[in-house]
Design a protein that fits this description.
186 residues; alpha+beta; 2 domains; nine-stranded antiparallel β-sheet; 4 helices; globular
Length: 186
Protein backbone atom coordinates (compact mmCIF):
# COMPACT_ATOMS: atom_id res chain seq x y z
CA UNK A 1 0.00 0.00 0.00
CA UNK A 2 2.80 2.41 0.87
CA UNK A 3 4.53 1.58 -2.44
CA UNK A 4 1.30 2.34 -4.37
CA UNK A 5 0.91 5.67 -2.59
CA UNK A 6 4.55 6.47 -3.42
CA UNK A 7 3.95 5.69 -7.12
CA UNK A 8 0.79 7.80 -7.18
CA UNK A 9 2.64 10.69 -5.50
CA UNK A 10 5.48 10.40 -8.04
CA UNK A 11 3.03 10.36 -10.95
CA UNK A 12 1.21 13.39 -9.59
CA UNK A 13 4.53 15.18 -9.15
CA UNK A 14 5.47 14.49 -12.78
CA UNK A 15 2.04 15.62 -14.01
CA UNK A 16 2.24 18.75 -11.85
CA UNK A 17 5.73 19.56 -13.14
CA UNK A 18 4.63 18.98 -16.76
CA UNK A 19 1.57 21.17 -16.26
CA UNK A 20 3.67 23.94 -14.73
CA UNK A 21 6.24 23.66 -17.54
CA UNK A 22 3.52 23.92 -20.20
CA UNK A 23 1.92 26.86 -18.42
CA UNK A 24 5.24 28.71 -18.38
CA UNK A 25 6.19 27.74 -21.95
CA UNK A 26 2.92 28.74 -23.58
CA UNK A 27 1.66 32.31 -23.24
CA UNK A 28 -1.72 32.65 -21.66
CA UNK A 29 -4.56 33.48 -24.02
CA UNK A 30 -5.52 37.05 -23.30
CA UNK A 31 -9.27 37.33 -23.02
CA UNK A 32 -11.03 39.52 -20.55
CA UNK A 33 -13.55 42.32 -20.57
CA UNK A 34 -10.78 44.84 -21.33
CA UNK A 35 -8.38 42.80 -23.51
CA UNK A 36 -8.98 40.62 -26.53
CA UNK A 37 -6.21 38.79 -28.41
CA UNK A 38 -6.67 38.02 -32.10
CA UNK A 39 -4.08 35.60 -33.47
CA UNK A 40 -3.16 34.82 -37.06
CA UNK A 41 -5.38 37.37 -38.76
CA UNK A 42 -5.51 37.12 -42.52
CA UNK A 43 -6.86 39.62 -45.05
CA UNK A 44 -10.39 38.88 -46.18
CA UNK A 45 -13.88 40.24 -46.54
CA UNK A 46 -14.31 40.48 -42.75
CA UNK A 47 -11.91 42.78 -40.89
CA UNK A 48 -11.32 40.83 -37.68
CA UNK A 49 -10.31 43.90 -35.66
CA UNK A 50 -13.43 45.85 -36.65
CA UNK A 51 -15.61 42.80 -36.04
CA UNK A 52 -14.17 42.21 -32.54
CA UNK A 53 -14.48 45.91 -31.63
CA UNK A 54 -18.12 46.01 -32.76
CA UNK A 55 -18.85 42.80 -30.85
CA UNK A 56 -17.46 44.55 -27.75
CA UNK A 57 -19.87 47.47 -28.32
CA UNK A 58 -17.54 49.93 -30.07
CA UNK A 59 -19.63 51.34 -32.91
CA UNK A 60 -19.00 55.12 -33.04
CA UNK A 61 -15.53 54.53 -34.46
CA UNK A 62 -16.33 51.47 -36.60
CA UNK A 63 -15.62 53.21 -39.92
CA UNK A 64 -12.28 54.62 -38.71
CA UNK A 65 -11.32 51.28 -37.16
CA UNK A 66 -12.10 49.56 -40.47
CA UNK A 67 -10.16 52.13 -42.50
CA UNK A 68 -7.09 52.23 -40.24
CA UNK A 69 -6.80 48.52 -39.45
CA UNK A 70 -7.29 47.56 -43.14
CA UNK A 71 -4.49 49.99 -44.05
CA UNK A 72 -2.14 48.68 -41.36
CA UNK A 73 -2.85 44.96 -41.77
CA UNK A 74 -1.96 44.48 -45.42
CA UNK A 75 -0.63 40.97 -44.92
CA UNK A 76 -0.93 38.70 -41.90
CA UNK A 77 -0.66 39.47 -38.21
CA UNK A 78 -2.01 39.30 -34.70
CA UNK A 79 -3.58 41.99 -32.53
CA UNK A 80 -4.32 42.82 -28.90
CA UNK A 81 -7.39 45.02 -28.43
CA UNK A 82 -7.57 47.35 -25.44
CA UNK A 83 -11.26 47.79 -24.65
CA UNK A 84 -12.86 50.13 -22.12
CA UNK A 85 -14.42 48.79 -18.93
CA UNK A 86 -17.58 50.89 -19.33
CA UNK A 87 -19.44 52.65 -22.10
CA UNK A 88 -17.41 51.15 -24.98
CA UNK A 89 -19.11 53.25 -27.63
CA UNK A 90 -18.08 56.52 -25.98
CA UNK A 91 -14.58 55.64 -24.77
CA UNK A 92 -11.14 55.66 -26.31
CA UNK A 93 -10.01 52.23 -27.59
CA UNK A 94 -6.65 51.02 -28.81
CA UNK A 95 -5.10 48.10 -30.65
CA UNK A 96 -1.49 46.84 -30.75
CA UNK A 97 -0.45 44.61 -33.65
CA UNK A 98 2.36 42.43 -34.87
CA UNK A 99 2.25 42.58 -38.65
CA UNK A 100 3.92 40.76 -41.51
CA UNK A 101 3.39 43.03 -44.51
CA UNK A 102 3.88 41.40 -47.89
CA UNK A 103 7.49 41.86 -49.02
CA UNK A 104 8.52 43.94 -45.98
CA UNK A 105 10.08 43.24 -42.57
CA UNK A 106 7.81 42.31 -39.67
CA UNK A 107 6.44 45.38 -37.90
CA UNK A 108 4.78 46.53 -34.70
CA UNK A 109 1.86 48.92 -35.07
CA UNK A 110 -0.60 50.55 -32.73
CA UNK A 111 -3.71 52.63 -33.30
CA UNK A 112 -5.83 54.59 -30.86
CA UNK A 113 -9.40 55.68 -31.60
CA UNK A 114 -11.17 58.47 -29.76
CA UNK A 115 -14.91 58.93 -30.36
CA UNK A 116 -16.95 62.06 -29.84
CA UNK A 117 -14.32 64.58 -30.88
CA UNK A 118 -15.09 67.69 -32.91
CA UNK A 119 -14.36 65.67 -36.09
CA UNK A 120 -16.20 62.52 -34.99
CA UNK A 121 -13.75 59.69 -34.38
CA UNK A 122 -10.12 60.81 -34.22
CA UNK A 123 -7.29 58.32 -34.82
CA UNK A 124 -3.57 58.23 -34.17
CA UNK A 125 -1.45 55.31 -35.34
CA UNK A 126 2.22 54.32 -35.37
CA UNK A 127 4.08 51.55 -37.13
CA UNK A 128 7.60 50.51 -36.17
CA UNK A 129 9.94 48.54 -38.45
CA UNK A 130 13.55 47.43 -38.35
CA UNK A 131 15.45 47.73 -41.63
CA UNK A 132 18.76 46.03 -42.44
CA UNK A 133 19.93 49.14 -44.30
CA UNK A 134 21.07 52.64 -43.35
CA UNK A 135 18.57 55.33 -42.41
CA UNK A 136 19.64 57.33 -45.47
CA UNK A 137 18.75 54.35 -47.68
CA UNK A 138 15.44 53.78 -45.82
CA UNK A 139 14.49 57.44 -46.30
CA UNK A 140 15.29 57.33 -50.03
CA UNK A 141 13.79 53.90 -50.83
CA UNK A 142 10.95 53.38 -48.38
CA UNK A 143 9.77 56.96 -47.84
CA UNK A 144 10.62 58.58 -51.18
CA UNK A 145 9.08 62.00 -51.38
CA UNK A 146 9.47 62.59 -47.66
CA UNK A 147 11.02 65.96 -46.82
CA UNK A 148 13.70 66.13 -44.14
CA UNK A 149 12.18 67.97 -41.21
CA UNK A 150 15.13 68.15 -38.85
CA UNK A 151 15.49 65.98 -35.78
CA UNK A 152 13.79 65.61 -32.44
CA UNK A 153 17.08 65.42 -30.56
CA UNK A 154 20.53 64.23 -31.51
CA UNK A 155 19.59 60.72 -32.71
CA UNK A 156 16.09 60.77 -34.21
CA UNK A 157 15.72 62.28 -37.70
CA UNK A 158 12.31 63.33 -38.95
CA UNK A 159 10.72 63.15 -42.41
CA UNK A 160 7.56 65.09 -43.23
CA UNK A 161 5.29 62.87 -45.32
CA UNK A 162 2.01 64.71 -44.91
CA UNK A 163 0.32 67.50 -42.97
CA UNK A 164 -0.17 65.30 -39.89
CA UNK A 165 2.21 62.42 -40.70
CA UNK A 166 5.89 61.99 -39.85
CA UNK A 167 8.48 59.25 -40.12
CA UNK A 168 11.10 59.14 -37.40
CA UNK A 169 14.38 57.38 -38.24
CA UNK A 170 16.66 56.02 -35.55
CA UNK A 171 20.02 54.51 -36.51
CA UNK A 172 20.54 51.10 -34.90
CA UNK A 173 23.98 50.43 -36.38
CA UNK A 174 25.81 52.05 -39.31
CA UNK A 175 23.95 49.60 -41.58
CA UNK A 176 20.54 49.33 -39.91
CA UNK A 177 17.68 51.60 -39.01
CA UNK A 178 14.38 51.66 -37.13
CA UNK A 179 11.54 53.66 -38.66
CA UNK A 180 8.52 54.87 -36.73
CA UNK A 181 5.72 56.17 -38.91
CA UNK A 182 3.14 58.24 -37.04
CA UNK A 183 -0.01 59.88 -38.27
CA UNK A 184 -2.90 61.69 -36.62
CA UNK A 185 -6.05 61.27 -38.72
CA UNK A 186 -8.67 63.92 -38.21
Amino acid sequence: MTRKLGLVASALSVVGTLTLTLAVAQPARERSDTMRLLRNMIPGPINQITDAMQTAGVRNCANRIEQTSAFLTQGTGSALLFLPERDPDNSMVSVSMELQPVGLPRAYASATFSPNTAVGCAVAYESVQYWAESCTSVAAKRFAGGVFGGSIGSEVAMLNIGPTARVFLLRSTPTSCVSIKKEVVR
